[in-house]
Amino acid sequence: MGISKPPFTISCISFLALYISLYATITPTSSASLQDSFIECLQRNTNVGFPLERTFFTHERNASLFKEVFESTAQNQRFLTNSMPKPGFIFKPVHESHVQASIVCAKKLGIHFLVRSGGHDYEGVSYVSQIETQFVLIDLSKLRQVNVDIEDNSAWVQAGATIGELYYRIAEKSKIHGFPAGVFPSLGVGGHITGGAYGSLMRKYGLAADNVLDAKIVDANGKLLDRAAMGEDLFWAIRGGSGGSFGIILSWKIKLVPVPETITVFTVTKTLEQDASFKILSKWQRVADKLVEELFLRVFFTVVGNNAYKTVKMAYIGQFLGEKGTLLEVMKKGFPELGLTQKDCIEMSWIESIVYNSGFPTSPLPPLEILLQAKSPIGKIYFKAKSDFAKEPIHILGLIGMVKKFLEEDAVLVVWTPYGGKMNKIPECEIPFPHRNGTIFMIQYYRSWSDNEKRPNRRIKWMRELYSYMTPYVSSNPRQAYVNYRDLDLGQNRNSSKSNFLEAKIWGAKYFKDNFSRLVRIKTKVDPDNFFRHEQSIPTLPIRS
Ligand SMILES: Cc1cc2nc3c(=O)[nH]c(=O)nc-3n(C[C@H](O)[C@H](O)[C@H](O)COP(=O)(O)OP(=O)(O)OC[C@H]3O[C@@H](n4cnc5c(N)ncnc54)[C@H](O)[C@@H]3O)c2cc1C
Ligand SMILES: *[C@@H]1O[C@H](CO)[C@@H](O)[C@H](O)[C@H]1NC(C)=O
Ligand SMILES: *[C@@H]1O[C@H](CO)[C@@H](O)[C@H](O)[C@H]1NC(C)=O
Ligand SMILES: *[C@@H]1O[C@H](CO)[C@@H](O)[C@H](O)[C@H]1NC(C)=O
Ligand SMILES: *[C@@H]1O[C@H](CO)[C@@H](O)[C@H](O)[C@H]1NC(C)=O
């Protein structure tokens, strides 16, 4: 890439800089002058050029391009409506030193920025702030290198890569290596792993964050640190302690895990009528976390039919690390009620199973290269979601009320994900993610709608009612939640630069249990000015006066 030099002499630049900084202190900064000061500052703080037309985007310069870049990876349309605030400008670093310079310059100019990798945040906090008066967006999508080292069983992957690209690059080099992260290919490696990151290998190998060996991060002073330089406290915090709180992750070094050459996937669906007494669903709750850890068997609840006749469909979607003969034996012994047969089972490679589970249409299975396109398989939708953890099987009366609640709506998706296996064996304080032994399954509630939805608030209200209905059946004190399924209903930081420690303790305990206090201590140490912040970032300790 060419180094873009400004068309001025040095003295002109410094004069301009002086002029800009004076101007900036006198008048409230327009985004144009802010951007100019920022660019000028960046140029002084990096030796690597950044062609402006490829790295800087403003509404003023090209409104349609700005909109396109802003919306490119934003998953939740709720945060893209006209009434939502927009960043003053977007900067896409093309070199790691640009990220360092961004921090130095943003601090100096008093600019608040948000950081986005894959844009899948449930509450849009990586690209929209509803609590800052102004903000800019640092989008890492151009930092997306993946270097797989099969000999070393490891890979370095940059934050802006998608998890699908990572999987593809691993499989390109080996059929028997994999990585235990999320199932959805367009997830950004940067944000995803900061919250834990689970997928179909979790019962065998734990979370992505459990399999991180090293990381490169830029801290609040613009320093680039690896594991040795950041120290074990900060290295602990970034593996599950949530994104946008401790610094900017530039890349992760991950540990690859073994997968067999042949694995088996299957989907068996039952309607309410086919499981009228919840015999199958009740059995699933008793065994899903206890079956062999090679088996990952989730339940997807959807509402099907029309107003004349609606029912709930329960899809049992499974993945087994082995051949179908062995799977059939496991199921016959542990869960015969599901009635899995030979013809339900499809054998394939691990990377094909990624595509099978990705949400892309699967018959026929699309080419693996689909994992390289950063597009989301489900397109852009409006949604609200929540999470829960079940510690005991939900009683049949609870289930009856639950499906009744589902039937009030249509585009419902509720997913039950089994725990157990490796997840039980990792201590709660190993990394910040605390949902371990004692959890039978995680629940995700998800309600989406489209552009022509007349009453979006009603959808959100329904979701909150469902959550309230579920209270007696799930974890309590605290009622646990998964930070990667961010939910601002649980509470949020309200004031721009001040943290609300006491309020945050309430939602913090839901995401991190007791680990929250350690996260706060680390945050206070590494970022005392709360430079990295958003609606649910880890707060600093209140200063005693
Ligand atoms: C359709 C869909 C499917 C999903 N499937 C799964 C799944 O299978 N398993 C699972 O565990 N989760 C899943 N998730 C949740 C997902 O893990 C989180 O939304 C995650 O935060 C996404 O990371 P991102 O980089 O795409 O998001 P972003 O929106 O870019 O970032 C999320 C958060 O991390 C911060 N952040 C982003 N990049 C960095 C960085 N480089 N350094 C520091 N902080 C950063 C952001 O500021 C923000 O706070 C899913 C989400 C969606 C929308
Ligand atoms: C704005 O960007 C779009 C998309 O790249 C481009 O087609 C268009 O020519 C640009 N418009 C101007 C005025 O530069
Ligand atoms: C998990 O918890 C159960 C009961 O609380 C306990 O008996 C078991 O030993 C624990 N397992 C591990 C691996 O810690
Ligand atoms: C935010 O700060 C302002 C001014 O400092 C204060 O008046 C207000 O009560 C604060 N709000 C919250 C929710 O803490
Ligand atoms: C982290 O959380 C675990 C479980 O909630 C707790 O046992 C441990 O004491 C916590 N660690 C610290 C340092 O607070």
From TrEMBL:
Read off the SUPFAM superfamilies from this record.
FAD-binding/transporter-associated domain-like
Q: Where is the FAD-binding PCMH-type domain?
A: 83-259
Requisite cofactors: FAD
Xref: InterPro entries: BBE (IPR012951), FAD-bd_PCMH (IPR016166), FAD-bd_PCMH-like_sf (IPR036318), FAD-bd_PCMH_sub1 (IPR016167), FAD-bd_PCMH_sub2 (IPR016169), Oxid_FAD_bind_N (IPR006094)
- Which one of the record's GO molecular function terms can you name? FAD binding
Task: Identify the stretch annotated as signal peptide in this record.
Answer: 1-31
Keyword tags:
Cell wall, Disulfide bond, FAD, Flavoprotein, Glycoprotein, Nucleotide-binding, Oxidoreductase, Secreted, Signal
Localization annotation: Secreted, Cell wall
Q: Does the keyword Acyltransferase apply?
A: no
Q: Give the family this protein belongs to, as stated in its UniProt record.
A: Belongs to the oxygen-dependent FAD-linked oxidoreductase family.
Q: What is this protein called?
A: FAD-binding PCMH-type domain-containing protein
Originating species = Capsella rubella
